[in-house]
Amino acid sequence: MKEALRKPVDVEKIRKDFPIFKQKIRGMPCVYLDNAATSQRPDQVVDAMNDYYQIYNATIHRVIYELGEKATDAYEGAREKVAKFINAKPEEVIFVRNTTEAINLVAYSWGRANIREGDKILLTVMEHHSNIIPWQLLAKEKKAHLEFIDIDGEGLLKMNDFEKFMNEEIKFMGLVHVSNVLGTINPVKEMVNYAHKSGALVLVDAAQSVPHMPVDVREMNCDFLAFSGHKMLGPTGIGVLYGKRELLEEMNPFLSGGDMIREVHLREASWDELPWKFEAGTSNVAGAIGLGAAVDYLNKIGMKNVREHEKQLTKYALDKMMKIKGISIYGPKNVEVRGGVISFNLGDIHPHDIASILDGEGIAIRAGHHCAQPLVERLGVVGTARASFYIYNTEWEIDYLVNALEKARKVFKL
Amino acid sequence: MSDMYAEMIIDLYRHPMNYGKIENPDIKAQDTNPICGDIIEIQVKLNEGKVKEVKFNGKGCAISQASASLLTEMIKGKKIDELLKMDKKDILNALGIEISPVRLKCALLPLKVLKMGIYSYLGDSTKVKE
Predict the structure, then answer these.
(1) How much is the pTM?
(2) Which of A353, A359, A369 sits opposite B62 (nearest CB)?
(3) Which of A352, A360, A407 sits opposite B61 (nearest CB)?
(4) Which class would CATH give A46-300?
């Protein structure tokens, strides 16, 4: 078989696992292209969560009965699956609500103990708000400084900016792996290596990478890594913070209370071991189990195949979309350094009007600033429309999108 | 929904009515729709308690821009207390299209801004309702 014909993923088979695609949206096909915001969930994930609720529902840890043991095994089993998925150790995987909470955990727990007046924190202009605001608050509180790596015309980080900042004693760097607006895949491994040589710790926002490509925290050698379950076929309300063991060991708890303790007296307490030290209160057991099932599902397809499928689809979409008259597409055109995210504008049509017209065709895309307002300002536009892909999206859906965009051009007489 | 994009809406988006600024307006207010970043400013010059001149400016989607054109056109010559009585129905009637619930905020932003301006002119900025 010729290389061009090789399909890394059996999309039609996959789509059968997602009941949401069986419905019509006001008589139109349900074309879901907002995967950078949240993915859909297959039966396998929902079933795993149902099993927990219907068959072995109980609280976890410190329970001396059968149901609780089963629930604990499933919860900790999910942690092991997630750890293996990113090549971490289970005790380095902390379950949180989402990427935002994971970054907040680091900003509060590590940041407040280590960032001092005058320290510099380096970010990039392409960060999601979740990797900006926690550092803004920390910098204000500690009178520290925020610096930002700019992007070039292609939407790639300016490496000379980065190197220049690295000579200025950066204490900490927050870096997005894949931009949720531009799709840019940043050279995280090289940047982490460089930052470490300059003595900076690095947190990687992997919300848009872990769901879409193989991610290996040992190879990347990042100090912290954050991602969300709901963008990778898992349920909402469960996310992950990975941290290097020695860093997590020395950090204070972020949230405190039940379950995260070793011993409690009226005026003092000691903490449980990793990772439980950071998991206060009753955990999102069903969420973790659902995320574990999502990891199983993705492993069955293989993350290399997921990436390959999206790469082919993105290339197909870029080729077709670039032919639309009046379109502006943001971010790198080379799919080797671009994930399955395409932000665009069409003539003078406001992104929200594009989204409304596409909605009329059953197509779900995103419009606005995508929680990356500084980046959208940097691009010099009021917002962008954004289509983002996943394992269940097809070339037919891209054609359908392109067709709908042509309709939008007609409606707006472009 | 394409039904939202009647010819008139597109025309008003490209060629808005009453777009611009007034020197020394009596009423002036501005607001944004944080969901989509639409921004509308409305300025009004009064004469004996009636709208003598009105302009709007800002950036936004076709719905909010068309709505601002129609609103500013509608209120010319009207008394302030009449303006305060205007509501959602008046705007939707003027637009004459079906607005999907998620876009209602865009359509109603100009009216909200106008009322903000009037209340602050009357010395009570706490009364602005969505």
Answers:
(1) 0.94
(2) A353
(3) A352
(4) alpha beta
Domain A3-32+302-411: CATH superfamily, name plus number = Aspartate Aminotransferase, domain 1 (3.90.1150.10)
Name chain B contacts of A357, Cβ cutoff 8 Å.
Answer: 1-2, 5
Q: Evaluate whether A343 touches A183 at the Cβ level (below 8 Å).
A: yes
> Is A30 considered catalytic here?
no
Write b or e for each residue in A123-152: b if 16 or more Cβ atoms lie within 10 A of its Cβ, otherwise e: bbbbbbbbbbbbbeebbeebebeeebbebe
| Catalytic residue (one of A45, A200, A349, A371) | A371
Cβ–Cβ gap A412/B10 under 8 Å: yes
Q: Measured between beta carbons, which residues in chain A are less than 8 angstroms from residue B103?
A: 352, 356
Domain B2-121 grouped into CATH 3.30.70.2210: no
- Which residues in chain B have Cβ-Cβ distances shorter than 8 Å to A359? 1, 100
The two three-digit tokens of residue A137, written as one number: 């608050």
List per-residue pLDDT tens for chain A, 414 residues long: 445 557 899 999 999 999 999 999 999 999 999 999 999 999 999 999 999 999 999 999 988 999 999 999 999 999 999 999 999 999 999 999 999 999 999 999 999 999 999 999 999 999 999 999 999 999 999 999 999 999 999 999 999 999 999 998 999 999 999 999 999 999 999 999 999 999 999 999 999 999 999 999 999 999 999 999 999 999 999 999 999 999 999 999 999 988 888 999 999 999 999 999 999 999 999 999 999 999 999 999 999 999 999 999 999 999 999 999 999 999 999 999 999 999 999 999 999 999 999 999 999 999 988 999 999 999 999 899 999 999 999 999 999 999 999 999 999 999
Whether chain A has a CB inside 8 Å of the CB on B127: the answer is no
Residue A231 near residue A38, CB atoms below 8 Å: yes
- Of the candidates A104, A78, A23, A63, the residue with the CA atom closest to the CA atom of residue A296: A78
pLDDT category of residue B125 using cuts at 50, 70 and 90: low
C-alpha span between B62 and B60 (Å, rounded): 7
Residue given tokens 């195949």 in the structure block = A305
Choose the closest CB to A359 out of B1, B36, B63: B1
Which residues contact residue A31 at a Cβ distance below 8 angstroms, ignoring those fewer than 6 apart?
A361, A362, A363, A364, A397, A400, A401
Chain B (99-118) residues lying within 8 Å, Cβ to Cβ, of chain A = 100, 103, 106
Tell me the ipTM for this assembly: 0.88
Please indicate if any CB of chain A lies within 8 Å of the CB of B63.
Answer: yes
Rounded distance, CA B52 to CA B64, Å?
A: 23
Cβ-Cβ contacts under 8 Å, B10 against chain A? 411-413
Distance CA B111, CA B103 (A): 14
A312: its two tokens: 């082919």
How close does chain B come to A375, measured CA to CA in Å?
Answer: 14
Whether A411 and B37 lie within 8 Å, measured CB to CB: no
Q: Which residue among A367, A383, A411 places its CB closest to the CB of B5?
A: A411
Closest residue, chain A, to B100 (C-alpha): A356
Q: How far is CA B83 from CA B47, B51, B71, in A?
A: 14, 9, 10
